[in-house]
Amino acid sequence: MKVSVIDLGYNSLKLVNYEVNKDRTFAAYGQNSTLPRIGEGLDKAGVLEEQSIARTLKALKLFRDIVDLQRVNHVLPIATSAVREAGNKSLFLKRALVETGFAFKVLSEREEAVYSYAGARAALNVEAGLFFDLGGGSLEMVHFENSKIRKILSLPLGGLRLTDLYAAGDGGFSKKNYAKMKKKILGLLPASEDLPSDKELSLIGVGGTVRALARFEQIRDEYPINKLHNYEMDRETVDSIHQTLHKMRLKDIKKITSIG
After folding, report:
1. Which of 7, 15, 141, 148 is deepest in the core (most CB within 10 A)?
2. Of 194, 232, 195, 202, nearest to 129 (Cα)?
3. CATH code linked to domain 2-106
4. What is the pTM of this model?
């Protein structure tokens, strides 16, 4: 049986096709991804802007053609933070259904965190840790021990959202706005006493931003294997990447193949 999952995030739109067997095992056989940036400008306007909706619907129509060509049995379209928070959510969902035939399920903050964690957890051999999913619009965090969820957090700290709020038109940050953004982030992140006290717990990250940073580090250090899954980065490496990118202009960052 063929099943397709469509994931509409704050920044990206993804389609993954799976072959699902009778024993419930499955394997992906095709995927497509684009960046319609449906959440662009959401914090300032409170609604999904028309040009963002138009970009998204255009991409969804292409996905409809792919799904129909593949003769997929079931399609599960899901939407996360941008659609969830938009004042015109109902209008967008209706247009998506009428124009593309996709009936989106909008995930709650808790569902988004749990589903993301569950997907990563199934592919990792980690008994306890702090899981995080850094997306374009939100940051989900799950503290788990002995494969049981202890705490769930969802914060409006996605990469595109923070850029829209604090960056200049050219994508750069003034010292003043950078300081404001840092204050915002630290003000929303949980305090140390609210996080696991065991320093041996693993910190596990997923999402396009995390993958881009990991790949950037691999290229910079000439890592011999083209593999990101289970790749490890220490605190000093993350700090080093931060300092490097912070000093670069947007036009130069765009030239980095791992980021684009």
Report:
1. 15
2. 202
3. 3.30.420.40
4. 0.85
